[in-house]
Amino acid sequence: MEDIPRLGARVVRTEAGDVAVFRTAGDEIFALRDQCPHKKGPLSQGIIHGKRVTCPLHNWVIELENGQAVAPDEGCTGVYPVKIEAGKVLLGLKQA
Question: How many helices (H) and strands (E) does the chain have?
C-alpha cells in the first residue's frame, strides 16, 4: 500500500487492460479501469479529491466507489475489487 502515494494512483497492466489503483487521503484503496467513460482519458493521471477522481482530459468527475460519472455527466467505468492484507494491495481482476 505504501507504494501508492496518498492522493495518487498506480497502474497495473493486465491482459484485460490497464487498471488504476487509487489511494485517498484517508488511506482508502479503490481500483477502476484506467479509462474515463467520456473519451477514454487516463484516470490514473487525474486529481483525487475525497472519493472521486477528475479526468485530466475534460474534467469529468468519477466516483471511486462505483465508477459512475457525477451528474450532469453520464457514464461508468469498470470497478475492480481490492482488499488490503499485511499492507499489500490485493486486486481482483473480475469487475465488480
Answer: 0, 9
